[in-house]
Amino acid sequence: MDRAYTDAERDRFRRLPWLNRFVRYLVWGLLEARFFAFFRESRIARRMEAKAKEYLHSVVSDPALREALTPDYPVGCKRILISDDYYHALVRPNVEVVTSGIQRITNDGIVTQDGATRPIDTIVWATGFETTSFLAPIQIEGLEGRKLTDAWQGGAEAYLGIGVSGFPNLFLLYGPNTNLGHNSIIFMIECQVGYVVECVKAIMRDDLAYLDVRREAMDRYNERVQKDLSKTAWSAGCTSWYKTEAGKVTNNWSGFTTEYWWRTRWPDFRDFERVARRAG
Q1: pLDDT for the residue numbered 177
Q2: Of 78, 121, 170, 226, which one's alpha carbon is 20 to 30 angstroms from that of 273?
Q3: Could you give the CA distance from residue 23 to residue 29 in angstroms, rounded to a whole number?
Q4: Is residue 138 situated within a structural domain?
Q5: How far apart are the first and last CA of the chain?
């Protein structure tokens, strides 16, 4: 059901601003309900898997190709594709799906592990992308010169995905464990922006040198997040960009967006060390 809005719909949105917000909340609510599908072995997850296989069978008649295209992990363990029409490309007569590994590349072809050689003229080198380090090629140093890359050596983590203990006045947007597999990240970032603004206001109002998340608060929070994530498809037995090579899920939020909104609606300054600015 992913489509462009019609001219008539866009005109109604312009004339009726309330309709615009209504549709936004409607879409958000429908997507929020999808979170139930990412609990392991939930009824909705099983129904979702059945519908996906039903669609696969309706498009792909070749049993061997169907088997190659059928995931061996729960719904949501890897990112779900928005597109629902790529199966049609794979059943075209000039397309071949090859699952055998590549043995070597020759001057004019690819030799796979099964010994077959296929002539080629273009290779798309899909190397993927780095997601779990959360850092651009810059060095961020906190108290006593500690580097953020060292603090995150075992996997990135932060308090509410926003603050990192030992790195005062460092506020992150779209930080560790704030990505979503079921709803809009824009909503999460809006929550984070509001939270950070309140922290900055407190620093200015109380003339603080900095706010620093207490270590015990950050550890307590992340223990809860990882415990909740263990019940979801994202921590199931597959490799994905949601998790580190060691298997720690560092990208995804562990619950509903409503819960994240509730937690970030106002900073709890008891979880911060407040350091006053020195006179002079």
Answers
A1: 97
A2: 226
A3: 10
A4: no
A5: 62
